[in-house]
Design brief:
Number of strands: 27
Low-confidence stretches: 386-418
Structural class: alpha/beta
Distance between the termini: 50 Å
Largest sheet: 5 strands, parallel
Number of helices: 6
Oligomer: single chain
Strand order of the largest sheet: 3-2-1-7-19
Shape: globular
């Protein structure tokens, strides 16, 4: 292989590039990114960056700009892929032809159509998003967070720490239940109430009030009204895969891959938030939107690209973490289908505990609140999953989409949100 092109210059793309060099690739290496920035770390954006504890230069992922010996094409998005010639077309008219391609175009924050163009409505995905949102965290002002996912929860925690009056509006009866289960989801939800944040569950938004191009209030179906100065929409992410339409790469809610990152087109792999890898245990495809997945799976996918005869490697249990109100939450494994939850250490009321999820008496996942050492031991004890499933993906991913778009519109008796 003479030329390797990586489309996407965030963590997954950078990790793929580093893996390629570490695995002996000495040819031309091209990294393409739609943002003008060199790769940076995204998790701090909703935590320390919003609180002013770190600056943009502190979250850069490179310490040596020459380590990769790569060509960087930044500020230009890929718009089409011709798989027959392995040619990538960019929106500025340039093209890149490669022998091997890594798709790492990530995802973008979902939006609410009724709020597009509103000046005080924010999403959080990029450094620019974080810079804009940070300037809106004003003590004494009101913030409404739509969606009780981890991004929304971390933004709410940062805003409350800055002295804002915060309300979280969520469609689910229990926040975080999809990831943590009902009992532990309720516990983490209670952490917000304990810090003065109002959490409204099972909510249905009927309309928004607006004034001078911004949102001033939110009407709920049950009659409640939330006045606000700032709105943050945190309802998940959409994979950036539109540029692959018609290319021949199989798509279904993500770039469909086998259990080692191969797409339906030989010589092309996908990693990071845009990639729906096959789970051998379930036979379904999933997009894993976590830092460790983007970091660790890149090396596996690159190895299958550079060495088709490479032996399958086991995949570590999924892992993610969150920081809220000084509580460090860590989760590893897959709690899907668990039948028993045990508090193995600590006290739930003190938000310092370790919970283990069991299935048929076998631990399948572990959650820790402020128990990092004990969590590390339990995480290492979780089983790894063997790889080696068929290379051709067949089934669509199972990631559900939240139903925020239905039933939400601007009020006809209020100024248009432009």
């Amino acid at each position: 292989m003479e030329t390797l092109a990586i489309v996407g210059a965030s963590l997954a793309g950078l990790s793929a590039a580093r893996a390629a060099r570490a695995q002996g690739f000495s040819g031309r290496l091209v990294l393409i990114g739609d943002e003008p920035h060199r790769p940076y770390d995204r998790p701090p954006l909703s935590k320390d960056f919003l609180l002013g504890r770190v600056q943009a230069e502190d979250i850069l992922l490179e310490s040596d700009s020459e380590e990769l010996r790569a060509e960087w094409m930044l500020g230009s998005a890929a718009v089409f892929l011709d798989v027959s010639s392995r040619t990538i077309a960019l929106d500025d008219g340039r093209t890149v032809q490669a022998d091997g391609i890594v798709i790492a175009t990530g995802a973008r924050a979902r939006t609410l159509p009724a709020l597009v163009g509103s000046g005080n409505v924010h999403t959080l995905r990029t450094l620019t998003d974080a810079e804009n949102l940070a300037s809106a965290l004003v003590s004494g002002n009101r913030m409404a967070v739509i969606g009780a996912g981890f991004i929304g929860a971390e933004v709410a925690a940062a805003a409350a720490s800055r002295g804002m009056q915060v309300t979280i509006i969520d469609t689910k009866p229990v926040p975080f239940s999809a990831q943590l289960g009902a009992q532990m989801g309720a516990l983490v939800g209670g952490l917000h109430a304990a810090n003065g944040v109002e959490l409204i569950s099972s909510a249905v938004i009927e309309a928004f009030d607006g004034h001078e191009g911004g949102v001033t209030g939110i009407h709920l179906k049950d009659g409640r009204y939330i006045a606000t100065d700032v709105v943050v929409v945190g309802i998940g992410a959409e994979p950036n895969i539109e540029w692959l339409a018609g290319s021949g790469v199989d798509l279904a809610g993500g770039v469909l891959c086998d259990s080692e990152g191969r797409t339906s087109v030989p010589g092309i792999v996908a990693v990071g938030d845009c990639a729906a890898w096959l789970d051998p245990a379930t036979g379904c495809h999933h997009r894993m939107e976590h830092w460790t997945g983007a970091f660790e799976r890149a090396a596996l996918a690159v190895e299958t690209l550079l060495d088709p005869e490479a032996q399958p490697k086991p995949v570590k249990p999924h892992y993610f973490w969150s920081d809220q109100y000084g509580v460090k939450l860590q989760f590893a494994g897959d709690s899907t289908g668990y039948d028993r939850l045990e508090i193995e250490a600590g006290e739930m009321d003190a938000y310092s505990c370790l919970a283990v999820y069991y299935q048929a008496d076998a631990p399948v996942a572990v959650l820790a609140l402020n128990q990092p050492r004990l969590f590390g031991r339990w995480r290492r004890s979780l089983p790894v999953r063997a790889q080696g499933t068929p290379a051709r993906p067949a089934s669509p991913p199972t990631a559900p989409l939240p139903g925020w778009e239905s039933g939400v519109a601007a009020r006809t008796d209020a100024p248009a949100l432009v």
